[in-house]
Amino acid sequence: MPALYLSHGAPPLADDPVWPAELAAWSAGLPRPTAILMVSAHWEEAPLALGATETIPLVYDFWGFPEHYYRVRYEAPGAPALAESVRKLLRAPGAPVQDVPDRGLDHGAYVPLVEMYPDADIPVLQVSLPTLDPGGLVEIGRKLAPLREEGVLIVGSGFFTHNLAALRHGGAVPGWSAEFDAWGREALAAGDVDALLDFEHKAPAGKLAHPRTEHFAPLFVTLGAADAAGELGSARGVIEGFWMGLAKRSVQFG
What we know:
The chain has helices at 19-28, 80-90, 107-116, 134-144, 175-189, 193-197, 199-202, 206-209, 218-227, and strands at 3-7, 35-44, 49-50, 98-99, 124-129, 152-158, 236-239, 242-243, 246-247, 250-253. The chain starts with a strand and ends with a strand. Helices cover 31% and strands 17% of the residues. By secondary structure, the protein is an alpha/beta fold. It has a six-stranded mixed β-sheet with strand order 5-2-6-1-10-7, sandwiched between helices. Strands 3-4 form a two-stranded parallel ribbon. Helix 4 (134-144) packs across helix 9. The radius of gyration is 17 Å and the shape is globular.
């Protein structure tokens, strides 16, 4: 399976005139996964945690939206076999893996999945970000890479730029968002992992594009999964453009 990094949007993504169709077309062009492993910007927990392995209610981790966004359901099957594989790959002395069986999918996971796999018939497992250290996340991605050979779709779910000050621009694209997006496109095309790892210092407006790094962090898990297969040079931009001033760039490796 390929490895993906996608910009997951917010609950109103479902009402966008373009973006849902872009996500649907992307998934239609992929082999059907045996399971999906989601690493979302919206779950930071250490040590690394595995979410529910049976179908439980979603986590509506947002506030102030119209009521109908809190009625969305995504009752995908749990993935206990995948959870066991992840434990075997990641658990080591000094690196425990914990289970959080009452932790459902958050909006970083289910919002894009509703558009990509609307039948909710593929098992999904969400794992936490145990750190925001880029190097540590790349190593996690490398360790998870063998799952791709078993048909597992590894998805890092974040947002290519994520500074909510952009929302004050009424949909116009701030200069810092456009500059960071252009830099990121070139770094990905060149397979320049060193630059991406040090994006806060090497990218134009790096700290403006990501005041906190959690929405860029899932990219490093994806990069690790791609690096283990020698695919860093295969990055393909699948979705580009901006939503409410934020870059929705999403890429596929392999």
